[in-house]
Amino acid sequence: MKITGTLMNYYIHCKRQCWLHGNKVNLEDYSELVKIGKELHHQKLDQKKHTEISIENIKIDKIKGEYLVEYKKSNADLKAATWQVLYYLHILKQKGIYKKGKLICMEKNRDVKKTVEVKLTPKMIEVIQKTEKEIEKLILSEEIPKIKLTAKCKKCAYYTYCAI
Ligand code: SF4
Known about the structure:
Helix 1 (about 5-15) runs antiparallel to helix 2 (about 15-20), helix 1 (about 5-15) packs antiparallel against helix 4 and helix 2 (about 15-20) crosses helix 5 (about 120-140). The protein is about 45% helix and about 15% strand. It is globular and about 45 Å long. The chain has a 4-stranded mixed sheet. The longest helix has 19 residues, at about 120-140. With about 160 residues, the chain is an alpha+beta fold. It has helices at about 5-15, 15-20, 30-45, 80-95, 120-140, 160-164, and strands at about 55, 60, 60-65, 65-70, 100-105, 115-120. It has one domain. Bound molecules: iron/sulfur cluster (SF4). Iron/sulfur cluster (SF4) binds near residues 148 and 156.
């Protein structure tokens, strides 16, 4: 199974979201928030003349100098976004490409940005390898994780599905 950056992000954010996405229950096409995020993403990439890079199962927004750069529409779940970036750094490292990570969160007012820098460590690589196995096991499981509605759910593409 190919683990993606999105799956890594969702696994940290919510196991149920990870399971749903991994099992191709795709409600994201109907989510306004996801559409906004994609639009911001495309605009950013357009400004930067399509700098998105695909390597195997991951899509990186941009490589600039010593940094891998990932754009997010908000800093709502920085931890999940950070592990997504760390996962990308790990994949690059496996290809002999050594980068640091830069996460740029664009708030609703697009002039406001929050930038987080991350560095991959051996300990983090261990966590990523363990998490890859856990994600695979979760997605192959026939049991969908239970709903745990929290404030973060309101921004999730599956909110309507879980909340009704
Ligand atoms: S709505 Fe909440 S419980 Fe449901 S998948 Fe999204 S984050 Fe998880």
